[in-house]
Design goal:
about 90 residues; mainly alpha; plasmid
Length: about 90
């Protein structure tokens, strides 16, 4: 049976050391920072975290979905196929 978007998000959260959510919820900046670390996308964590779009673009670039880490090329949340690629990368 195919996984739902919520199930994929939770599997990714657990794989990067974050907590599952009972309800469907988009990734927080902290979730995205943990995913960046897991896929090897370097971000500056000494101050404020970068914008979500920047982190989403970097993650998708590192897992091979995008050709570069341009934030203008990403939507406001991950699509299911993108989540599947991220889940594969962090497992």
């Amino acid at each position: 049976m195919a996984q739902t978007v919520t199930e994929l998000r939770n599997e990714i959260r657990v794989a990067v050391g974050r907590f599952e959510r009972e309800e469907s919820a988009p990734f927080t900046k902290e979730d995205l920072a943990a995913i960046c670390d897991a896929v090897g996308y370097e971000i500056d964590t000494s101050g404020r975290l970068p914008p979500k779009a920047e982190m989403r673009a970097g993650i998708l670039w590192k897992v091979g979905v995008l050709e570069d880490d341009n934030p203008e090329e990403v939507s406001s949340s991950f699509r299911k196929d993108e989540l599947e690629a991220i889940e594969t990368a962090v497992q």
